[in-house]
Amino acid sequence: MILNELAQGLRPSSEGVEWFENLSEDDQRQALHALVLFCSQARAREEDVPASIARSGIRPTHTPAVMLTKWRFGMDRLPAYELTKAFRLLIALFSIADGRRRALHCADGCGHEWHNLSAQPRPTQG
Questions:
Q1: CB within 8 A of 87, min separation 6: which ones?
Q2: What pLDDT tens digit does each residue of the chain (126 aa) get?
């Protein structure tokens, strides 16, 4: 749910990064793996890469950006110090692809629970 909320702009990216960084390294790797699947399901395109890099705030020379430029997605296997960069990049890619998919295929409504998150109450943090 958090990944979808981040992609749809329902949570600030800073909150998402904080959530991600508080996960164990194994859970971070699992989250990255899930994000790659979500990007695929949302039909991310290679043409989305430059905008994803720009939106993520990471430099195009950082390893996850270079990998994505080459359309390689093994970011869950990167060294631990690269995982947050990969997370920011994949959230940006997912956001772009999912936004397009919602606009093209779900604009008149859909049954995808994850596309109707803004209508659901969000738990407060405390």
A1: 16, 17, 20, 28, 31, 32, 35
A2: 899 999 999 999 999 999 999 999 999 999 999 999 999 999 999 999 999 999 999 999 999 999 999 999 999 999 999 999 999 999 999 999 999 988 886 656 555 444 444 544 444 444
